[in-house]
Amino acid sequence: MRYISTRGQAPALTFEEAMLSGLARDGGLYVPETIPQLSADNIRALQGLTYEETAFRIMRPFVGDGFTDEVFADLIAKAYAGFGHNARAPLVQLAPNHFLLELFHGPTLAFKDFAMQIIGQLFQEALERRGERVTIVGATSGDTGSAAIEAFKGLDNVDVFILFPHGRVSEVQRRQMTTPPEANVHALALDGHFDDCQARLKDMFNHFEFRDNVRLAGVNSINWARVLAQVVYYFSSAVSLGAPDRKVSFTVPTGNFGDIFAGYIAKRMGLPIDRLVVATNQNDILHRCLTGGAYQTSQVHPSISPSMDIQVSSNFERALFDAYDRDGAAVAQLMDELKEGGFNVSQGALQALREHFDSGRVSEEETLATIQSAQTTMGELLCPHSAIGVRVAETLRASDTPMITLATAHPAKFPDAVEKASGMRPPLPNRMADLYERPERVTRVANDLAALESLIQERINK
Ligand SMILES: Cc1ncc(COP(=O)(O)O)c(C=O)c1O
Ligand SMILES: N[C@@H](CCOP(=O)(O)O)C(=O)O
């Protein structure tokens, strides 16, 4: 299996090379050259398997021979052993034909753990075998950062720098990133918003001298391996509701478009998914684009669902690549226009996107009201991001197709918003009950590429 860039100008790589590289050298994102297909019988055979067995069958065809079957199965087992639920991703029924897929039972209480835990294992295995070390830099609006730190803290051959927007993540999210004592962990609070963090990260990848000097690696969903690991729970949940003999739809709280893109890959592999519904907060560039065709950036408005306060949605580039019939030059042109503020999606590409995706936008008031009503009528305490998904699903779902809404984070990560809505303050799990007492370690940084690069260089030279 080879991986190609969405901008068509970077060399094709193996899975392991693409994983260790992150962003392609032409600025694009890696995608598989072809999508492996699962027949209805292959999908039916997933019924009754453990999450780990399903993960092996779904990911194996994408991974290539860098990892043997035995090693790969062992890494998967280690990745999910620390999850706090035997099913790993349990389904809870909210209403007739509406289900919640709880993706917050991992070590840092958000869906990011599903990918980050296995990526941590794959990186360790590959780096040890190659005798290499890397500098991971990640951009986060709150959840990717703590999941990456949890997966890579304490490793000898990795330094991990996490850029988060100063003052724009919840206190629990911040403390998850600033309290780990391991010397290879560096939490950097940037003066700006998430899009600034992500833009500086991409600048570092496009600055080849720095990139090669520090051996830069990325674990945001620009990294294909992140998307791949998230494909698994689309299969496990759909199969438990009767796939392939019954279609299902998914509603996904969306920001960087990585999670819902994993659903799209599941569909392309043969999983019978009817609709993939993008649910956004007031930072609604994706909803505006899917309804009107204009992908136009605007100011980022802080919200009670801070992890989705994103206007430049990285993985949308991967969806555009397919919608433009894999024309890398066309995608590169759109990305150039994005630097000037935005672009219009062609009619043909918009139609192609709409064949798979619907969308909805939820206001702050509606988010609070949904947390409250889900708690009183369904007995489920939702985080604000998951509430956005539930709200959009309730509005758009068809009565005859089961809808699965992804619950992307634990409500305890956002106690203020949840308490405001429901009157209940969700406690942290016992293992992190002293989070508020742990000392914090964080460096405040300007939104300045040169300053960031020298700080990173200095720290890794120590
Ligand atoms: C809790 C939560 N929900 C939803 C999202 C949006 O996911 P994606 O960026 O993959 O669209 C994020 C951030 O990525 C998140 O942290
Ligand atoms: N919401 C994310 C933003 C980064 O997304 P990623 O999936 O590209 O890593 C976060 O919590 O950091």
TrEMBL record:
SUPFAM superfamilies named among the record's database cross-references: Tryptophan synthase beta subunit-like PLP-dependent enzymes
Pfam families recorded: PALP, THR4_C, Thr_synth_N
Named cofactor requirement(s): pyridoxal 5'-phosphate
Catalytic activity: O-phospho-L-homoserine + H2O = L-threonine + phosphate
Protein name as it appears in the record: Threonine synthase
Threonine synthase N-terminal domain location: 2-80
PANTHER family (alphabetical): THREONINE SYNTHASE FAMILY MEMBER (PTHR42690), THREONINE SYNTHASE-LIKE 2 (PTHR42690:SF1)
GO terms, molecular function: pyridoxal phosphate binding; threonine synthase activity
Pathway annotation: Amino-acid biosynthesis; L-threonine biosynthesis; L-threonine from L-aspartate: step 5/5
Native organism: Sagittula marina
Keywords: Amino-acid biosynthesis, Lyase, Pyridoxal phosphate, Threonine biosynthesis
Family: Belongs to the threonine synthase family.
